[in-house]
Design goal:
about 1000 residues; 31 helices; alpha/beta; flat
């Protein structure tokens, strides 16, 4: 047979001699020669020869160094003459044999036979090892089967048994991963797997938590397009030793190592797929022999699983049987408890006349001894016992007359000729009344109930007496009772009707409700009321407005229900009525208060909006104009403050009277609140110019009237109005928009000096709309971080950059780069300057921190303008410190620029805030110095570092002596106060030379650089 010999020999001549002696074409032997230890190890890593011949000494080491790389390959050592002792030592270390190399190489003649002997001896040893390993494996398999049987018998659920089974299978196959699960059929018949055992592979925490959550009932796996699903669908083993390339593979869950080899083993029992095993990543792969080897264990598991399922089914049936028995016992006990607890006595008499069932209440009601009933006596025996005891009275007079014959016949054997009444009443010897009801059963016999109706009969008697009392009491009630016949005509009135109010009862009899005189009910209300009556429905709180004989209004609330006789025929209506006049008058007062101003009795805002809506509609329909006048009293707050709110209210009442006297009765004068009044004028000229003239005439009349002095608290008080006028004609214009226009015009009148009137101008609305839109854009721009900073350098006398002033720009998405002059003023008016200022300060400090990281800009400072709104905030100091801390900027490089007007508001507070920041190194500069109110008294107290000459003085220093003098004065003043001075707006070399010559050392302006991004400095 072909044999491959690896010869390790660095002697080329000797190696060739050995190869020639062994490589025989007829025998098929092949000799591969390597010269060094490294070559030998690389060869053994790539190939597996049948035997290795190694010289005692080779390049890179001795033959002993190869032993750990042989991996079971037999080896012989070649020693030279005289070194036989080394050969014996080599045999002890693991070489199978040795050959002694003589000088004539005669040992080569016996070398092939010696190699055959070694191979035969090693082959026999390997065969014995394989057999022993097979026996050991079979023994382990039998042990696994035994342990699986024990575990299935001991476990109540599949998880513990399948966990033990998985451990056995992992051990038997030397697999890295595995899972075991039950095969369950869905309602549509498709199989899916409930995994009860799985190796703890390298999942993430989420995967482990999901598996633990479903561990008790088993995690469901139902993907048929996978290696596991292939075995689940086919019911056949699935084996692959290249799982990554197998088209059936569906990948692995997150965190799961990739599968290299896979073996899927279905478990069958009684022709049914009951479980499934998945094993993976065995280093040497899987074979069909593994499937055959594990089949006995799988068969045993299948039988055990079927037995376990049968046991579960048996237990389920037993549990259901036990549950049903318990339910039956519960129902029996419940029936017995019910019979014992009902207030009626009950008996069940069979077809033979024996009392089979009775309850305790039956014995109590009839006062019968229980011993009489225990023997299930004939019914007539009980009747004879009661008769003998006198329970039915002399001549059965305690029995209702219509049933006496029947009861008397029961004392003897019934002959069936006496009819058994379904219901009758009898009296007991104790004086109680019993109602006896009997119901025949289809199978023969009857059920009889005995009910104590003593209280019921007493109640009927009490009800009769109560009816009599009620009739007498209705006359004492404020409500009254009425009845009508089938044609809805009044036939009865009881109680305290509204005759005292001037509506006599005789007016009602023989008439229907809608035939009564002096009623104020709409046709729709009458129609709905008559429909309810004709449908014989109950009605509640139908309200009628009537007049008494002397003309006073009264309101009545009526409720009623239909009356039916014993045969169900409609016979009329009955009900009650109540005088609700006082409530209606109170509701009217409430409505007046809801729509009218309590102080002036003029319409309030709610009624104004309704009337304005009607006026707009009417003008649009008639093609004429209307006008809305919005009045606001000038300086009315002064009246309240000096004279008190009570006298201010009296003034408002007089204003309402005067304005109402200036307009027509068809016009509306309303008070919105405070000192604001509104006048709605209708029916003006169709042409706008004529209508405006008419509205102006009314406004002039109101102005003249309100300019007259008011007599308040014995003194004359003057209060003038400002009036805004808005014309209207288009019905599409909302009333809120009209009010807004008139309000804008009124504020325009105030802006023109008060005590005047002003018509609404569309340009006014456009400006207000544009301002509102710009405010919204600024708000969104802050949220979207659209505002950016440009920096204008500040230089010294030699032109070296010392820092920069941060100037905000708005990078608007539609308008492009917007200068600050277009939005700063509005931001200050709306309060948006606060978030914008925080954003600007944050960007500037962040840029300052970036400059600090570069050597040539590390000494630069940045100046940031602070608005009055920002500086007046109580937490301004904390805000600045928070920005500095978050950005990491050096406070000594930050300079805050303030204006003179800002500092004059509260000098002491300004000084405290400035000193708190200055102690940390923050500097302060007084911006635009000389343009405002400059006072040396506060200038010397403020902890300033720098003055900035406003560019209005710098611009004309070469042409205007006054500007030149002011600039020089500011420089001299700054030097005397030990302050730095910066000249703003330097644009020419002449300006620069003049300022430098007069002592100014720091400059800022277009001559040195325009504002731009930080990257361009």
């Amino acid at each position: 047979m072909p044999i491959t010999v690896l010869l390790i020999e660095n002697d080329h001549a000797h190696a060739q001699a050995v190869a020639d002696a062994l490589a025989d074409p007829w025998s098929g032997w092949r000799v591969d020669v390597v010269q060094s230890q490294a070559e030998a190890i690389d060869y053994l890593r790539r190939k597996r020869p049948d035997i290795v011949l190694a010289a005692q000494r080779t390049v890179g080491g001795s033959a002993y160094d190869l032993l750990q790389s042989l991996d079971g390959v037999p080896a012989m050592i070649l020693v030279r003459m005289g070194a036989e002792t080394h050969a014996a030592q080599a045999m002890r270390y693991g070489f199978e044999d040795f050959a002694v190399q003589d000088a004539a190489l005669e040992y080569l003649l016996a070398l092939p036979a010696q190699i055959d002997t070694v191979l035969e001896r090693c082959s026999s040893a390997r065969a014995r090892q394989v057999a022993e390993a097979m026996l050991a494996r079979q023994h382990r398999l039998l042990q696994a089967i035994s342990r699986a049987q024990a575990m299935f018998i001991a476990s109540s659920g599949p998880r513990a048994a399948f966990d033990a089974l998985l451990q056995e299978l992992m051990s038997l196959t030397q697999s890295a991963f595995g899972l075991v699960g039950q095969v369950v059929r869905a309602d549509d018949g498709h199989p899916f797997l409930r995994v009860h055992a799985m190796t703890d592979i390298s999942w993430d925490e989420t995967s482990r938590a999901r598996y633990a959550q479903h561990a008790d009932e088993g995690m469901v796996f139902d993907n048929p397009h996978s290696l596991l699903g292939a075995a689940l669908v086919s019911g056949e083993p699935v084996l692959t030793n290249d799982a990554l390339q197998d088209p059936r593979s569906a990948g692995t869950p997150p965190g799961h190592p990739p599968l290299s080899t896979y073996l899927g083993l279905p478990i069958h029992a009684a022709g049914e797929l009951v479980a499934l095993v998945g094993l993976a990543n065995r280093s040497e792969g899987y074979t069909a022999a593994d499937v055959e080897f594990l089949q006995p264990l799988l068969n045993t598991i299948g039988q055990l699983e079927m037995a376990r399922r049968a046991e579960l089914a048996r237990r389920k049936v037993e549990a259901e049987l036990e549950r049903t028995s318990m339910l039956l016992a519960d129902k029996t006990r419940a029936l017995e408890a019910t019979l014992a607890s009902v207030s009626q006595g009950i008996t069940n008499v069979d077809a033979e006349g024996r009392i089979r069932v009775y309850n305790r209440r039956y014995l109590e009601l009839l006062d019968l001894p229980e011993a009489l009933l225990q023997s299930q006596p004939q019914f007539e025996e009980v009747v004879r016992f009661q008769t003998a005891r006198g329970d039915f009275g002399p001549g059965f007079q305690y029995i209702e007359p219509m049933a006496r014959g029947y009861v008397a016949s029961q004392t003897e054997t019934p002959d069936g000729h006496v009819n058994m009444p379904a219901t009758y009443v009898r009296r007991t010897h104790t004086g109680r009344y019993i109602e006896v009801r009997t119901r025949s059963l289809e199978q023969g016999g009857r059920v009889r109930t005995f009910t104590d109706v003593t209280d019921y009969l007493s109640t009927l008697e009490a009800l009769r007496l109560s009816e009599a009392r009620w009739r007498s009491l209705t006359h004492l009630s404020s409500d009254w009772y009425w009845e009508q016949d089938a044609q809805f005509r009044f036939v009865r009135l009881d109680g305290n009707t509204y005759r005292e109010a001037g509506v006599p009862d005789e007016m009602h009899y023989g008439r229907t409700r809608w035939e009564l005189p002096d009623t104020f009910v709409t046709d729709g209300q009458w129609r709905e009321h008559r429909e309810a009556l004709e449908a014989h429905r109950v009605f509640h709180d139908f309200e009628m407005h009537r007049l008494t004989e002397d003309g006073n209004p009264v309101w009545v609330s009526i409720s009623g229900e239909p009356i039916f006789d014993g045969e169900g025929r409609f016979t009329g209506y009955r009900g009650v009525a109540r005088d609700i006049t006082e409530r209606k008058l109170a509701e009217a007062e409430i409505q007046r208060l809801a729509f009218y101003d309590e102080l002036t009795a003029l319409p309030n805002r709610r009624l104004l909006m309704d009337r304005l809506e009607r006026a707009v509609t009417a003008c649009a329909r008639e093609g004429c104009h209307g006008a809305l006048l919005f009045l606001d009293l000038d300086n009315f707050k002064g009246v309240n403050d000096t004279m008190g709110h009570e006298w201010g209210d009296r003034l408002l009442v007089q204003v309402g009277h005067r304005v109402s006297a200036c307009v027509r009765a068809t016009d509306t004068v309303a008070r919105l609140g405070g000192d604001e009044f509104v006048v709605v004028i209708q029916g003006l000229h169709a042409h706008a110019d004529e209508a405006a003239a008419e509205a102006e005439a009314v406004a002039q009349k109101v102005l003249a009237s309100l300019n007259q002095p008011y007599l308040v608290q014995g003194s004359e008080v003057h209060s003038t109005p400002s009036i805004g006028i808005a014309l209207f004609r288009d019905v599409e214009l909302p009333v809120q928009e009209l009010l807004k226009r008139a309000d804008l015009a009124m504020y325009q009148a105030k802006a023109q000096g008060r005590n005047t009137m002003c018509f609404f101008d569309p340009a006014m609305q456009a400006a207000a709309s544009a301002r509102s839109a710009l405010e919204g854009d600024i708000r969104q721009g802050i949220l979207r971080s659209e505002f950016v900073l440009h920096y204008q350098p500040v230089v010294n006398e030699s032109g070296q950059v010392l820092g920069a002033e941060a100037l905000v720009r708005w990078n608007h998405p539609q308008r492009g780069m917007v200068p600050p002059g277009e939005f700063i003023s509005l931001a200050e008016q709306t309060g948006l300057i606060l978030p914008l200022g925080r954003q600007v300060l944050g960007m500037a400090c962040a840029q300052l921190a970036r400059w600090a990281g570069t050597p040539h800009t590390a000494h630069w400072s940045v100046a940031v303008n602070v608005s009055a709104h920002e500086f007046r905030q109580a937490d301004f100091v904390q805000e600045v410190l928070a920005v500095l801390n978050s950005s990491g900027a050096d406070p000594r490089k930050l300079k805050l620029e303030l204006t003179e007007s800002l500092l004059l508001q509260d000098v002491e507070d300004s000084i405290r805030k400035m000193q708190a920041l200055r102690t940390l190194g923050v500097g302060f500069s007084l911006d635009d110095f000389g343009t405002g109110y400059s006072s040396l008294s506060y200038l010397k107290r403020l902890p300033l570092d720098q003055l900035k000459i406003d560019q209005s003085f710098v611009r004309d220093v070469l042409t205007d002596p006054n500007d030149a003098t002011i600039a020089c004065t500011i420089i001299t003043l700054a030097h005397s106060l030990c302050l730095d001075v910066v000249a703003e707006g330097v644009e020419t070399q002449g300006q620069h030379a003049f300022l430098l010559r007069n002592g100014c050392k720091h400059f800022q302006g277009y001559l040195f650089g325009r504002p731009g991004p930080a990257e361009l400095l």
